[in-house]
Amino acid sequence: MSHKDLAEKLGVTEVTVSRWLSGERDPSIETLNRIAEALGTSTSYFFITDDWQLEKELSARRENLMADKMKIIGYRCKEVQPCRNCE
Predict the structure, then answer these.
(1) Which end of the chain has fewer CB atoms < 10 Å from its terminal CB, N or C?
(2) Cα–Cα distance between 82 and 84 in angstroms, integer?
(3) Residues 27, 31, 32, 34, CA torsion sign
(4) 3-state SS class at 25
C-alpha cells in the first residue's frame, strides 16, 4: 500500500503519513488503531522489536488466513459437488 493509499484510507494527507514514518510526529492511539485496521494487522505489530516475535505474529496471521480460505473453499465445494474432504 502506498503512502497516498494509506492517507486516503485514513482521511489524512500524504505529508502526515510521511511525518509519521520519519518519526517527526506520532499518530494518536486512535489513529494507530485505524492504521492497523487499514493494514490488516493489530497495533501490537508496531511494537514488536524481536525478529522471533515478528515471525511468530506473521505465522499466526498466515495460519488464520489459511483456515479462512479453507472454510471458503469447503463451502464452495459443498455447494457445487461435495468432494471426499467435505462429505
Answers:
(1) C
(2) 7
(3) negative
(4) coil
